[in-house]
Specification:
By secondary structure, the chain is of the alpha+beta class. It contains 2 helices and 4 strands. The N and C termini lie close together (10 Å).
Length: 66
Amino acid sequence: MIEFEVKDMTCNHCVNTITRVIKETVPSANVGVDLSAHLVRVEGVPNADSIERAIREVGYTPVLKS
């Protein structure tokens, strides 16, 4: 599982946008979002780079959690 903190994710529109772009990048990905904790969890992806880049391209600032 890959986990990102996305502090500038503040509403359901943000959640929908981030979920959509992740699914467009890796259609088989399993995406879970905790809006109150500003966390995005992604399973089923080979690495974090493409997901991080996709989230950045739609205007958010993901920080990979270790």
